[in-house]
Specification:
Elements lengths: L2 E5 L10 H4 L1 H7 L3 E5 L12 E8 L6 E5 L2 H4 L15 H10 L5 E8 L4 H13 L4
Parallel strand pairs: 1-2, 1-3, 3-5
Antiparallel strand pairs: 4-5
Length: 133
C-alpha cells in the first residue's frame, strides 16, 4: 500500500504556495508515495486515521514535524475565530475530526513560508530517506 501525504496550500497566494509549487518534483522524485493536493475543508478522514500532511507555517526558520496524537497536541495549533467557511481551516478541521474520533493522529511537515523551493525539496527528501515520515 502506497504511503499518502496530503499537500496543502493556495497556489494563488505566494506565502501559502510553497508546498504546491514543489509538488510536481516530489511526485517525480518519490513515485512510490501518493502526494495529493487537497483543501483543508475536504473530508480528510477519507485518507485514513493517521494523516501525513505537508504545509507551510509562519514563524519557523527550518522544516519542522509536528506529531499531533491527542487533543493536547491539537490545542497547540493556533486557530482564529470562525465567521464564515472561509475561516474554517486545517487546524479546526483536525480538531473536529479528532473529537469525532475520525482520525487518530496527524503528522504535519511544516515548511517555512520564505524557504526556497530547492531547500524545501532537499529537506523533505532527507526526511523521507531517513524514514521520518
Amino acid at each position: 500500500m502506497k504511503q499518502t501525504i496530503l499537500v496543502f496550500g493556495n497556489p494563488l497566494v505566494e506565502l501559502d504556495s510553497l508546498a504546491v509549487r514543489i509538488l510536481p518534483q516530489l511526485k517525480k522524485t518519490f513515485p512510490n508515495i501518493n502526494f495529493i493536493h487537497v483543501d483543508p475543508t475536504e473530508n480528510l478522514q477519507n485518507y485514513g486515521k493517521k494523516l501525513k500532511i505537508l504545509d507551510v507555517a509562519p514563524n519557523i526558520n527550518e522544516i519542522k514535524i509536528f506529531n499531533l496524537q491527542n487533543e493536547k497536541d491539537l490545542d497547540k495549533i493556533s486557530t482564529s475565530k470562525i465567521f464564515s467557511m472561509h475561516d474554517f481551516d486545517l487546524g479546526y478541521n483536525l480538531k473536529l475530526l479528532k473529537k469525532l474520533d475520525l482520525i487518530d493522529e496527524a503528522k504535519i511537515i511544516c515548511l517555512p513560508w520564505n524557504m526556497k523551493e530547492e531547500e524545501a525539496l532537499e529537506g523533505i527528501t532527507k526526511l523521507i530517506n531517513k524514514k521520518e515520515l
